Amino acid sequence: MKNIWTVMKKEFARFFRDRRLVLALILPGVLIYVIYSFLGSGIIAGIGGTDENYVYQIYTVDMPDVFKAPLEALENVELHEISVDEIDEVKDRVADQEEDLLAVFPADFEEKYAAAVAGDPTAAPTVDIYYNTVRTEGTQAYALFSAALSPFQQDVTDYFRPAVQDLATDRDVTGMMFSMIAPMLVLMFLFSGCMAVAPESIAGEKERGTLATMLVTPVKRSHIAAGKIISLSVLSLISGVCSFLGIIFSLPKLMGVAGSLSASVYTAGDYLMLLGIVLSSVLVIVALVSVVSAFAKSVKEATSMIGPLMILVMLLGVSTMFSSGATGSYLWYLIPLYNSARAMSSIFSFLASPVAVLITIIVNLVAAALLAFLLAKMFDSEKIMFNK
Asked: Which residue in 144, 201, 291, 296 has the most C-beta neighbors within 10 A?
C-alpha cells in the first residue's frame, strides 16, 4: 500500500506542477459550460423568434369581424384592413421581407363559410395566406394567425381551406441556409486543416530535436517563425478551401432542395470579399495554433491543448445561427474570428457591408501579426524551445 501511495504522489506532483496539464484538464469543462449556456440561450431565442416587444403586422382583405376578434385580443398583433387594389403592393412587401403576413378572404366568405358549417363541404371558401419563411417575424405571424383561426375550423378540409403561399424566393432560401451553416463550416474546416499540419511542423520538430538544430543556424528566429506561419497558412488554406467547396456544392443535395439552393446567386464581388475573410482568418488560426504548438513539449500535448481551441472556434461559427450575425454595431467586428463569422454571414445573406468586411480583414491581419510576433519571441526563448 505504501508503494502504491508513493507512485500516486509522484503522479499527482508531476501533473499539478505542470500548468499546461492542469489547464488541459480544466479548460474543456469551462468551455462546455460556456458553449452549452450560450447555445441554450440562443436556441431559446431562436424558438421565440423575435423580440418580446415586437408587434406583428398582419394585413387582411374582407376578413369577417368575428375572425378578427381573437387576433385583436393579442397585444403583439396589429391588423390592417386593405382593399383589393392594394393586394399586389402588400404581397410585394411581404416578398421583400418588409411585412409579416397577408390574408385574403373572398368577398362572399361568410356565405360560403355558413354553408360549409351547415354541412356542405363543397362550399368551403379558400383563404389565401402569404408570408415569407425567410423572415422570422413572418413565420411567427403565420403561426399566430393559424392558431387564432383554428377554432373556426373542424379540420383543414371542412369549413374553410387555407391556401398558404410562401413568397420566399430561391435566392432568399439560399441566403438563409448558407448564412446559418457556411460560417461554421468554413471556420471548422480551416481549423481542421491547420490542426493537421501545424502541431507536427512545430511541436513535432521540437520533439524530434530538428527545430533545435534549425534555431542554432545563422537564420533569424523571427524569419523561421514567419516562414512556418506563411507555409502552414498556405497548406491550411488549401485544405480548408477544398473542404468548403465540397460543402458548398453538396449542401443543396444534403438539404434535399437541390433546385432551390445554388451558389450561383452570389456575385464575383461576394466571392472576393469571402476570399479576403478566409485568407485573413486562416492567418489568425495558423498563428494561434502555432503559438500553442511552440508552447507544447510534444505533438500529443499540442493536440490536446489545441482541442479546446477548436471547440471555441466552432462556437464562434455556430453563433451566427442564433443571432443577427449580419447586422449590429461595428464593434463586434473588432473581435478576431468572431468578426469572420459575422462578416461571412452578412455576405451569404446578401447584407454585406464593405466597411464591416474591411474592418474584419484588417483586425484579423493585425491579430495574426501580433501572434506571429509572439511566436518569434517564443523562438527566442531558450526555456520554451529547449524544454523537453
From this structure: 296
pLDDT in tens, 308-356: 788 788 878 777 766 554 556 788 889 899 899 989 988 888 888 899 9
DSSP code of 150? G
State the amino acid at position 187 in one-letter form: L
Mapped to the 3 state alphabet, what secondary structure does 301-356 carry?
Answer: HHHHHHHHHHHHHHHHHHHHHCCCCCCCCHHHHHCCCHHHHHHHHHHHCCCCCHHH
Cell of 345: 454571414
Q: Which residue in this structure is represented by grid cell 356565405? A: 111
Query: Could you tell me the sign of the dihedral formed by the alpha carbons of 300, 306, 310, 311, in that order?
Result: positive
Predicted TM-score (pTM) of the model is: 0.68
Helical ranges in 96-169 per DSSP H: 109-117, 136-149
How confident is residue 44, by pLDDT bands cut at 50, 70 and 90? very low
